[in-house]
Design a protein that fits this description.
Length: 122
Amino acid sequence: MIDFNNKGFFKLKQNLEYADKVTELLLENEQIIDAYKSMRDGVVFTNKRIIAVNVQGLTGSKKDFTSLPYKNIVAYSVETSGTFDLDSELEIYFSSLGQVRFEFTGQTALLEISKIISEHLL
């Protein structure tokens, strides 16, 4: 499982490359909202869950996929980018896992993702 306390994993930039890596894991009516990549690892947001991809080893052929269903979220916080601070953040509290924090650089679908999370919470 991914170490969610490792902040290096979470400087994410929009990149659809990781959407292709998780297509075989998707359920029948599950759709990808957006995908993000850090140095080697990535995160894919679908309409049902978050899939975190941890690339392992020198060649990167070994991958760890962590599924974080929206139904297990108890609270979340969104910080959008501003004029000078272009980074945005998504902080999520899962019932059994605890706090997970994602930091984004550049363009994101954060408002759309937060609406989907709200649909599962409310």
